[in-house]
Amino acid sequence: MELSLESTTLPRAGTETAAPPRAAMSSSLMEPDLAHRAGLRTVAVYEAIKGILVLAIGFGLLALVHRDIQALAEMWVDRFGLNPEGRYPRMFLTLADRMADTRLWLICVGAVFYSLLRFVEAYGLWMARRWAEWFALVSCAVYLPVELFELWRGISIFKLTILGINGLVVLYLAYALYSSAQVRVKANAV
To answer: Are 173 and 39 in contact (CB under 8 A)?
Structure first.
């Protein structure tokens, strides 16, 4: 294999080299760095896990269609040794008594829709898409007032953990969007 010096052009002494094209420079500046990509992928895994859990619950409820839900609920309360007159077991039994097949189907369809949204969001975050960052920020921030209200009604470790995780995700995504906007401003200034 022969190399030809004619095909390579070197700048002559005293001449300035041309700057890289602006489009190439701005796209390389806008590439997410490794830490940003790792953060987005962590949030993507979190969102995918939420989607998987809701989908599993939806399919679990689908298995209850055309079954005596009240009898199953009473069996679960008995099996776990709960007092049927207690607050939560009574709420559970009342809910089971009111559950019809149509309502179960609607809940399952809602679970599938919610899971699809979480999977699309997780894919977009995994691929570092800006629309997914905005979607994730809004979809996580929407829950914060509800979580704060639930915490106001009664403090528990579970509620604090959920609020903490969602709060951290919202703060991270807001920071990521702000810092990527700063990179875009610098890229446009070049």
So the answer is: no
